[in-house]
Write a structure and sequence with these properties.
The protein has about 375 residues and is mainly alpha-helical. The protein has 18 helices and 4 strands. The chain has a domain at about 30-205. GO terms for molecular function: opioid growth factor receptor activity.
Amino acid sequence: SGRRNWNAARDLQRYRHCYPGLVESENEEEEEMWNLSFYKNEISFLPHGLHIEDLLESWWDNYEILEENHSYIQWLFPLREHGMNRRAKPLTCHEIQAFKKSKEVMQRFVRAYQLMLRFYGIVLINEKTGELKRAANWAERFQNLNRFSHNNLRITRILKCLGEMGYEHYQVHLVKFFLTETLVKEMLPNVKRSALDYFLFTIRSKRKRRKLVHYAWQHFKPQSSFVWGPHDKLLKYKSRLTKSQPQQKAEEKQESPGEKCDGSEEGDQNQSLEEEQKTGDAADLQAKVSDEDVKEKLSERVSKGGDGEEEKEASSTQQEEKDINSEAEEVQGATENDCTKESKKRKLDRNMADTKKTGPLKSPTDIENISRNLGECAI
């Protein structure tokens, strides 16, 4: 449509800010942890469901039931918001902490993620980093993705849940995968809008989100119609590799606005959607580097050695500083020369005036004769 889905933007902003205004019970004992009980294999999902171990075993290659059953997805990937299945329970902050403390539960969570990746034609090739690749049957599974759009909603839910459970690095790889398949390889045309409106903005880290927005902009066609970030800042975007470490640390401190589930708070909690729109919402790309940052870059590269490109950049920056200093010296020198000339001119004018009053100056011979005559008179 050439326009951004601002309803999606508001929804994802609320998620990234950890659902501001959402009230939960502060008493852990009174809270029933339905999602945790399901992941501990104590209860089956509702309605008409299975225990999680049975689901992970018997549905591994059953693509038909994974496509047609709509009750399980909210139990496998719970969120802190209500979904279409009213028998599923919203996730709570206490549950999130309990999930992370249980190794058994988190192992099941990764297996559930791999189950859905397989359903979409994707393979998790590195559990530590979250790196992905196409599965052997990717063509068949991509066809299913292009045909049934409700899977786009499921993927958004999966991405959100990954963020809640502390798998932000999994998020980044999954979003990058879909951006590549939709914009670069153009194999998932019916997933493209969801990837740009929803998937991209589930990333809470501003730095990582900016990088993905820039990647999307680079491969979007036509580039002039890209509406998910400000073009002036996208043109000036610099990756983390070219930024100084103090600048990176300052950004990382502000990456996840809002209140976290562990009780800590970070800045920008009350940032409005309009403010995010002005800066390209999640793009918020930085265009300028201060003089202090330039000096820090130079000092870091000199101390570390740096590669050829960094040395060239540093030397060019130093040359620019020398040029500026030399220009300043020339201006100062020109000013001093003007002042010297003016002083000499005034002195010459005074001498000429004295000459007019006292007559021409005496030569050395005249002075000797005068002194001899004075000496004779004195004798």
